[in-house]
Amino acid sequence: MNILVVGGGGREHAIITALSKSAKVDKLYAAPGNGGISKLAECFPVKATDIDGMLELAKKLQPDYVFVAPDDPLVLGMVDKLNEAGFKTFGPRANAAILEGSKVFSKALMKKYNIPTAGYETFTDAEKAIEYIKAQNSYPAVIKCDGLALGKGVIIAKDFEEAKDAVNSMLLDGKFGASGSEIVVEEFMTGPEVTVLAFTDGKTVKPMISSMDHKRAYDNDEGLNTGGMGTIAPNPCYTDAFKAECMEKIFKPTIAAMQAEGRPFKGCLYFGLMLTPNGARVIEYNCRFGDPETQVVLPLLETDLVDIIEAIWEEKLDALDIKWSEKSCACVVIASGGYPEKYETGKQISGLDENGQSDLAYVYHAGTKLEGGKFLTAGGRVLGVTATGDDLKAALDSAYKAVDTITFEKAHFRKDIGKRALEAL
Ligand code: AMP
Ligand code: GLY
Q1: Ligand 1 pocket: which residues have CB below 6 Å?
Q2: Cα separation, 303 vs 324, whole angstroms
Q3: Of 122, 275, 305, 390, which residue has the fewest beta carbons closer than 10 angstroms?
Q4: Nearest of 116, 298, 70, 81 to residue 199 by alpha carbon
Q5: Using CA atoms, how far apart are residues 202 and 197, in angstroms rounded to an integer?
Q6: What pLDDT digit, counting tens, does each position of 110-161 carry?
Q7: How many angstroms separate the CA atoms of 171 and 146, rounded?
Q8: Ligand 2 pocket member 7 (CB < 6 A)
């Protein structure tokens, strides 16, 4: 089987690594891919958001499946276009990817089907939003752009002034473009956060191992929000009781709701959850694998990923028994200094072998390129250094040991990935 993977980050490297282990796979392609991915898959310089370009590439390569990994092409309807042209795919069609593409849609769906989430109101008018926030008089206030905003469209305002600025930046100043032309103002929730990725064929839902992301740039959750600076799996806060509660109150009802709305969701659905004192609540849905959650979840998957892709395409996920390792996994992201704001690229990375790997851990490449046999930095998040272990502490020790041997000019990583999780054990 030949498979084309759309995307070029650490998540895609982890997906391609899992696919490369399948006995069913002959050849892997990636578009655009990156330096590390090029060691496992033939890379083509087509942007992940270039729907027509990707369709042309698929026509040329004739892959058995196209795996669309990032959010933007899914929301833009890349899967629909590929299906219409006769290609089999992994990933939701646009009418289901809207679960991530529009927070107004996903909040309304949860309200309609009684799926637990923060209470909210939506606004297109700044004055009305500000009036509402004033009347609520409850801080912090949570203000979110409706659409995709590279993880930056959520503002937690600590007082009225900050909340007003947030509303104005979205609805009046157009800081987030069309994504911020409608906003959601919602109740602030507290509790540990858990990511649960789930395979679904639109009818059956099979949650994967839980994980915990570390979104802030610096230690002790300080600094700006990033795409994610590290992850661990499983998440110790996600007890068996929460697992059962989420399955009955959130996962199954979400899949059934999308089916009932005529928007069956096929692929990987990302549940961003908060375990509040009043039970588990949905913070957000994403229509795809998380990054860097995938980097710690897929190494624990024991079932062939291709078998899962086929079962989802054929809508026979109920008949497949998916097996997971009992081990733990940890991923530490090494980023360019300055990320998530301005940073430099083109720095030579030391400590990697000719395959971009290390003896000590698995190195998922996020923003790298291979030039003249050397790996250079090419993005904000550069590498996800990942290790498994018999327990979380062993996995973290191995990952950090490897991190100490890999570096580049102005490299930055968090030294406390997994600390909160270890404390929760
Ligand atoms: P999102 O992009 O919706 O996942 O939001 C980004 C981050 O903002 C989440 O991971 C939470 O830490 C935080 N957040 C979002 N919504 C809420 C909420 N209603 N209450 C508290 N924190 C929130
Ligand atoms: N790590 C968060 C996300 O993938 O959205």
Answers
A1: 118, 142, 151, 154, 156, 186-189, 193, 215, 272, 283-284
A2: 7
A3: 390
A4: 298
A5: 14
A6: 999 999 999 999 999 999 999 999 999 999 999 999 999 877 789 999 999 9
A7: 11
A8: no
